[in-house]
Amino acid sequence: MWGQKERNVYLSSLFGGASAGLSVDMVLFPLDTIKTRLQSAQGFIKSGGFSGVYKGIGPQAIGSAPQAALFFLTYESFKYYVEPLVNPHYLPLVHMAAASFGEVVACLIRVPMEVVKQRRQTSTNRKHTSTRILMHAWKSEGLRKGLYRGFGSTILREIPFSFIQFPILEYLKSTYRIHFKNNIPLESWEVANCGALAGAFAAATTTPLDVAKTRIMLADKKTAATLRVRSVLQQVYREKGVRGLFAGFTPRVLWITLGGYVFFGMYDLSKNFCTDHLLDSEYEEIR
Question: Is the model's pLDDT at 282 over the cut of 70?
């Protein structure tokens, strides 16, 4: 049976993650559209250029809250149960593992959302609504080859990203708290600063994997069946060199830096609000 502490961890993580995911995706969606078009095999202009930068926001709005909520539920729960069992020197490994499990769970929602969103972002046909794209992918390509196309490449992008981002995030938070705050918990804006720095570094180093993921998701049905991350990266390198592997680098790093600030700041703020004002008051009423 759940104790109050465990219950607070689960519910505050869900609430904080949902608030953070929805906030960052709605605010920074145009940057994501520009990044996707820069990485598209059609090229930036043919994919739409700077017009219609809010195309595909529907599936993003629907999927952002639950995927972020599931990620943080998994991440915080793993940390809660495993950290007490591990030597402090090995905590970065715990954070890597927790983030990796969280990403796999979140991708169950993220990948179908990304498939629909990116096809909408790069379509110049106004009749190709998000709903039509969703139904076409489902009917013509099925679940695994359609809505979950690129699941493996997304995991291969997200896990290295989280391997880098979350240990850096936890290190920055811990170091700042010890050396500048006398072990007083950080304010939400301070957590946001740590999230921005960690996100920027992780985004910069994993851009080639993001390029591969985008190419696989946007490929036509016949081509997609033969695409693998390695072969896509080799093809991009042959065609465009290193510059091609880092296509969309600037909007991606900018998007994730700003996104890291909004995401982790909002997560900390919402999580603390839920714990301090919603869960505790509810618990008192029950008692």
Answer: no
